[in-house]
């Protein structure tokens, strides 16, 4: 039997709607942020010629290495990395893909990254205000190239922000500190991949194998969101 | 593990509908006001020849400087600044834009600022009385020019008031004290912008950069709501 | 962090439906009455030749003086003053106007003040018995002239009473004591206005400026509900 | 701030559905009875030639004396007196009038007092068993003449009883003790009115004025429910 | 103010759905049984030539003696006595009469007592399993003659049992002890009435008057459920 | 007044949905199992030439001996014995009979015992996962002969198992221990009845009368589910 | 009566929706995982020529040995093993079979194991976010052969992962440690069966009989999911 004093506390969050604390905070949303902060880290960098995403994978020894539940294609020129609860993320990925398809069918062009981020966030916000549900326990880094390379962050409270470079998840504070020092708007996609993977390597608590990381990129040239192959990641890991 | 005595308190606001306290207060609404008081400050001033809005931006070092989630256009001649939860604000901004469009379609003219403020507040009030939801954690400063320049405040309880000049958000008390001393109905739009930005500068806890502030104005001449460009803000900051 | 002992109390009223206490009281309704008792005071007097309403306004120094959220026209010959939450009041004012319009459309005449008071109170009562909502935190003084001058009070529990003269809101006990001494059924509208404003002046905690009070009247002659202009109020204030 | 120990108790009844206590009692219903017991008293007496109702009125000094919220006509030959929450009572009076009208339209005759009492009580009972509502905080004395004079009592739990004479509300125990001593089935309507008003006078905590009491009667001769005029009440008060 | 320690307990049953305790008991149902145990007692006896019901009445001194809220006719050959909350009972009596009528319309014959008891109990059971309601606080003794005389008991948990003789309500344990000693299947209806009324007389806490008891019977000869007249009851009371 | 420390516990189960405990248990379901464990015991044995059921009856002295609420026919060749709440059981028996009839109408043959057990259990499981209800407080032993003799157990959590022999209810542990020692797959129906009744006799806390037990059987010869007559039970009781 | 301190804890999880703890955990989901961890263990191994499943059975001495509630066929080439609550599992097995049939009807081919796992997990995730329900207390190992042999795990939070070999349920940690040491991608189906059954044998707390284990396999040759017969299991047990 666990410590009773602990139990009398569990009551406090188990029976909640998402309501305000006296300090004006939405506790359920802050708790959902904790789920994000405990997710394996993801990282995005906007470059002069495109934008990249990287994500650490947490794997048990016999899990399949090519199983990827961190980075998803939303549209030809838009991709997403997730930090937090993967089940919640899939539900939002489905929603994002529908938004992208509706835009294609209606306007015959790709949805802008900002519009997608805003509409996703509107959806996420509604889960913080209505009864009978809980907030989403996931944050997204969304990248794409429309007029220029784009990198957006969404959060469980329904906020979204445009970033030059940003990391979310376990160890994100440390990663963002490095990013602030080393980021330059002149970075090329390849340089950014190198930087991102090096940051993952330096901040990981255990040695990083190629199977422990996935990456994706999109360039201003072909505007195609594509995953980076394992060999390239291996080479970067070896050389860094 | 956090302090248990703190936890036994969280229960109190996590499970709430919006109901009265013995003192006749609506606690959930007062807590929502706290979210407003912790938002980055916004400020509006009615002038002899128009009306202005300014808003401080809270930015991380790698966030995109031109991302604006504080000031929104509602109609050609109406704009809004928000203090509080940006996700909640967007939901209300959508509602405000629909109100403005319906008025245009029905009467072929811009909605009056007072009517817009009243209808928005009616909507906000309903979230303080119905079960299964929480109040909106956001206050608006709404400006526009109809017969004369207008400046209205909306609050989470569903109240709205007409002001000559007002500030909301973090540090608003200090800002309002300065406004009471320095406000004059003879102020011109340019003078009011100078005053507002100087107040932001004086009350900010850290040095204010042009990227840390946005502004908008509307004059009685062209009745167009428009954002103030960065260069102008820079010049005011330099000269103040 | 606030005092924990205070917090363990907030639970008690935050999670409530409107139900009976062992003493047969409806606590949520009594708490709503507190919101009324803390509102700026309103006062009505029935005269031999009409009936009047006065209301104190609580204004911040830069609030617009001509913004009136205390007295509303319901029908040509009916007006209302509110004490309590202004957002709640507006919701009921809308309902009262609909009742008045329906009566006009159906019977081609003004609704009687008693019928209006009764139907409003029936609506208010239903919010004290159904789940999923809270009572209205507002009381009305309703005046009008049908066969004779009328003055009615509505309360959050859904009661309504006919009065010769009555005050509601902050300081109402003191005001009613003066009214009981000085009221006469022979009072004329002008005398009643003088009496009412003098009572506001005597019971206000700070000096009363013309901007701090609004008034309305209706006479048996023209049966038109109309606001009293600022100049008249100024003159009464000066002479009292 | 009020006594915290009192507050931790308010939780107990504020969050309730109407459910059984371990003693098999429905607490919400018993609390509703308290609201009845605190209402101004009402009294009914069945006579050899009719049946009467009297009710005390609680008035503030400037309330209108002819405002009657205690006795209501339901049908030509049926009337009701209420003890408890007047807002709740009005809701049930509306329901009673509908029942009476439906009976008239369907059978072209007045509803029997017993049937009306039963159907009202069935309605009241349903509010003690369904979730999402609270019981009615009101008791009725219903009088009428069908084949013979009738006097029924309804209670918040949905019970109804036929009485020869009965009092409900504040001081009812004392009143019923007098009734038990002085009641005779031979009483005439006029004698019963005298008895009832004398009982009000003797049990009132303050001197009883004609404005503090209302009365109604119905006789076997004309079977018309009618209010007793003030003059008659004054005469009885003077002579008793 | 009542004892606080008592209040902190009322919370426990006021907020309940009907759910299991760790001992596998349905507390709300057991509490409903308490309401039955506190009702005035009812008693049924199956005889060789019919079956009888008796019920004690709790009367205030001025209540109408011929008001009967304990025994009801369901169908020509079926009757019911109730112990517990009379409002709840009336709701079930309506349901029982509908069942009887549907059977008559469908099969052109009286519903069997067992079928009626079973269908009523199915209905009662559903109120112990669904949310948003409370169990019925009433037990029935149902008598009738179909192929043979029948006596059934229904309980708040939705159980029903066939009995030779049984008593329910206040003092039922003592009554059942007497019944076990004196019951014989050879009893005639008249003897059973004598036995039943004697048991009421012996177990009543105050002297039993004819107005304090009602009785009904049905014989195998005419199969008509009928109330026993006051004179007969008086004679039995006198002779016992 | 009962012990307050007991009361503060009742809160814990009275307000519950069926949710997981930290140990992964569904408490409401385990409490429902307690209702089963306190029911009068039932016992089933699969034989070489059929399968039998026995059930103890708990009877008050004047209850009707031939009233059977423990064993029910579901289909010509399927029967059920219940342990737990009889009202809950009847609701499931109705459902089981509908399943059997639908199978007959659709496929013109008897439903298999396994299919019936599975579908009943699916229904029972749904009451452990949905809000607004409680689990069923009953277990079934289901017997029948399709290709071979069948004996299945259903439980409140929605599980079902095939058994050679099994007992459920009060004293079931002791009964199952005897069954494990004495069960043989070579047992004939008559021998199994002897064994089962002897086990009831040995484990009953009071002497067992023929009226305290019911039995049913189905053989591979005629595949007809039928109750065992009292005389046979008497003979077995006498000889054991 | 159990320990009161234990009871005051049960409240904490009995009244819960699935919401976040301050640590960002979904407690109801973690408690559901406990139900999985207490289930009898299941184990899957992907081989060079197919994939296998094994599952331990918990049996009482008189339970039927051939009753299998651990391994289910979903489609010709897909099978599932379950750990946790069998009632919950059946509900999901039904859903999985519907998904498989819809795929067959729509595309005329078998659903891919990954798609099935994803859609099942989407369904499971929705039970962790919506009010009025609890999470599923079950994990699945899903095997099949589409382009290659597949082995997926689903969890109560709505996650799914591809594995080379994995065990779930009681003792799974120990089993997975052995798997990590002995797994080779070169294993043949027969060797994998040997390994799996040996692991069950070594980690079982009591000696393992053939009746205590079930197994299934599917090979790349015929792509047919089939149960392994008892004789084969016996031989493996004897030889290991």
Write the layout of secondary structure elements.
Seven copies of one chain form a homoheptamer.
Chain A: H1 4-14, H2 27-37, E1 42-47, E2 50-56, E3 71-75, E4 78-84, H3 86-107, H4 113-126, E5 138-145, E6 149-154, E7 160-162, E8 165-168, H5 172-182, H6 189-203, E9 213-219, E10 226-227, H7 230-239
Report the C-alpha radius of gyration of chain A, rounded: 19 Å
Report how far the terminal alpha carbons of chain A are from each other. 48 Å
Task: Give the helix proportion of chain A (percent range).
Answer: 25-40%
Shape descriptor of chain A = globular
| Spatial strand sequence of the major β-sheet of chain A | 8-1-2-9-10
> Low-confidence runs of chain A (pLDDT<50, min 5 residues)?
1-16
Biggest beta-sheet profile of chain A: 5 strands, antiparallel
Helix and strand succession of chain A? HHEEEEHHEEEEHHEEH
Number of DSSP E strands of chain A:
10
User: Of all protein chain pairs, which has the greatest interface, and how many residues does each chain bring to it?
Assistant: A-B, 45 and 43 residues
Output the number of helix runs of chain A.
Answer: 7
- Mean pLDDT of chain A equals 89
Secondary structure class of chain A reads: alpha+beta
